């Protein structure tokens, strides 16, 4: 369907006009791929005009005519860009990827031009310097002035002459490099050389639903390549729903090693190699930091975070390393000893063995396995349960709305209501894996919340995307505990976006300090081990019986199993991130990136280095996903979420008074300093004590 002018027959670009869809949702049914580039180019022009009008205003700079005007500018561009970038990740469409590559330099240049606009900066600085004289402004308005001033200052507004132009060039280079890195990661996942074809007699240990999915993947792949189907072949790929179960359940150790090496050799060589790109990204970020007067990129990037400086990050990472290292080694020794009962005394536990033997020991010790648990996590029941968490805590209700356009038939749209019946926002849910879709899971928005001068609230359009296995035929979709945890995690982010009650776009929803943003997602994960929560939805997909009390208790007991190893693995990512971003001189072209990575992760290494396998070349979080010098945020937020959930454990996991205080943080977005918000909720600053107790490190 296309939008046309009835009088002329000329087609209108639906991204450049108000949406006619319900609630002005994105009109996916009217958008064509060719619309994106046109819309973004036109939206850039309109945004430039909006900013020019602010700068040309002959009246003295004020909060209203400068700060608010700029904060509310560029809505059309933001809308078009969010729609494109979200669909590029969710659809994996080559055409959209190419469009993204084309418009990204334009966006980068435009954003840099705004941040380096001297006329705009002069007005913002004038308002900032006189803000103490505006006693009539709300605390949120005062914070908007300060945060906007800091944002411009941290993005080069104070630079002069050559440094100003150098900053502009470096930002453009980083934009191009990051896009290329991310697209290489996505493209490598579909690389025919990174596929594991197996025969029927090589499937021992794999669950039936995983075998069925592998057979279907093989059939579809052979058909797409114009080859005749071979019923004896099964295909496993590097995508999580395929790779993770194979490495966890396959009894064939050589094949486990083979697929592990494939997965961990991604983007190291060949057409989609990221080795040289990541070196250039790290060096360009260092050069940018130097221009900004800092010794390294972490010093620069950590301004405007809860941590504040690299020393605080390393203090946290090392504190956790000290507490978790010995328990992790003890866990590995126990798993290796257990495996030797079957494999013999010469058996040495390797990284491709961990998931397999850890699952076996966990099952024997606690008599519970993912396969047993997933019988109670049928997708539709789980959706009801996860959505129901928001109902029990905050009074929200969810109703599917089929007249809201979606970008793929698998996507469902829900209207979300507050307890008083008012519409809170729209939630899009895109659950299933499909070829080309970016790996993992994420929350994003197509439109953020804000309020106009009369206090009227713009409805947020929020999206969660997962990669669950799609049902084969009429088979039920059963989720592993890990997948349910992922769902809870992304739903927590979604609630952050939906609940927002900020006035200004800059503070809306998840627009908070990056080491605070994971609190709300990780907080939700705590409920997965709570009987009172599971009793509400976890039913056997065949019999309809509730998850037995004994199974829940065993699951709760088993949940701590492997916690120390999991922490050390996360610390490995954090140490690697900080290593690349605390360099004080460029990484030379002759430097061995594998050796650099090995040295960075040595303090938290639990397995020997495996030749020709690396993390950095496919580490999208830090090289293309906005987490540079920020991966520590997951552990930082984990300290917060454990401490926050301890408050609920003290009063009741659905206690309404505690939930009301927590909801206030959800609604506040970036309107207040995050530590202030947290102390208001908890009555004190967080410590690692609750995390160490939850993980069984301390009793």
Helix fraction, binned, reads 40-55%
Strand order across the largest sheet: 5-6-7-11-8
Beta-strand residue fraction: 5-15%
Query: What is the tally of helical segments?
Result: 27
- Structural class from helices and strands? alpha+beta
CA distance, first residue to last residue: 62 Å
Radius of gyration (Å): 26 Å
Q: What is the typical, i.e. mean, pLDDT? A: 94
> Which consecutive residue ranges, at least 5 long each, have pLDDT under 50?
none
By DSSP, the count of extended strands is 11
- What about the largest sheet? 5 strands, mixed
Shape designation: globular
Structural features, described:
The protein has 27 helices and 11 strands. It is an alpha+beta fold. A 5-stranded mixed β-sheet has the order 5-6-7-11-8. A two-stranded antiparallel ribbon has the order 1-2. The protein has a two-stranded antiparallel ribbon with strand order 3-4. The termini are far apart. The model has no long low-confidence stretch (mean pLDDT 94).
Question: In a nutshell, what does this entry contain?
Answer:
The protein is 54% helix and 7% strand.
